[in-house]
Amino acid sequence: MTIQIEIKTVNKDCLEVYIDEDLVKKAHKKIFGNLSLGRNNFSSLDELEQLLIEKEKNGARSYLARCLGRKNLHSLEADKILSSLFVSFNTIQEVLMDFKDKGYLDDARYVTQFIHHHSSRGKGSRWIHQKLKQIGLEENEIRMSLHQMDAHSNQESLSALITKKSARQDINNPKFKRRLIGFLMRRGFSYEDISKALSIDEIS
Fold first, then answer.
1. Cβ contact 86:27 at 8 Å
2. Helix (H) or strand (E) segment spanning residue 168
């Protein structure tokens, strides 16, 4: 029995694979390219499925490697990227496990670098917490990771930012102080930490 297949172009990025007019696979060109199968008939459905799986795995690996060449990613981000390109669940899990085993994806390293990068640029623990939550990390994992960013380093970042913003301003001016507090809170610092830092800076 010969299985006839048809590949339809949905738009400039998306293809659809049909068997006997039934949709069996959505394929993104970033993963499958133009999906040239070499022929349009197969002796069995298993033969076709195996070919599609291999093409998907190879395409997913190549695309994720290119993404990691541009920026570091958490495995949750990599999962979302591949899912958005119609990559199957089983393929995503296999590719992510392979990349973790090879050290291309390292979630612990990613979180540590993320916290260090943003805290050194004047972001507070609340801001960092929210960003890690948006990535998809669990609450307990975020709290454990932020434990590395102790109160001392958080206060140092806060004090450095206050010094920078108030260099040419009168920090005792009520209007400026209100604007400064609002700015610092938007940066993710708590009101309690800001009040403490401002008191220290006023004394020093």
1. yes
2. none
Please calculate the CA angle 30-55-7 and round it to the nearest 5 degrees: 75
Residues 102/93/135/143 CA torsion (nearest 10 deg): -70
What does each C-alpha distance from 144 to 5, 141, 153, 187 come to in angstroms?
A: 51, 5, 16, 21
The per-residue pLDDT for range 95-109, each reduced to its tens digit, is: 999 999 999 999 999
Domain boundaries, the chain: 3-104, 108-203
pLDDT at residue number 37: 64
Q: Are 161 and 184 in contact (CB under 8 A)?
A: yes
Name the pTM for this structure.
Answer: 0.71
Class at the top of the CATH hierarchy for domain 3-104: mainly alpha
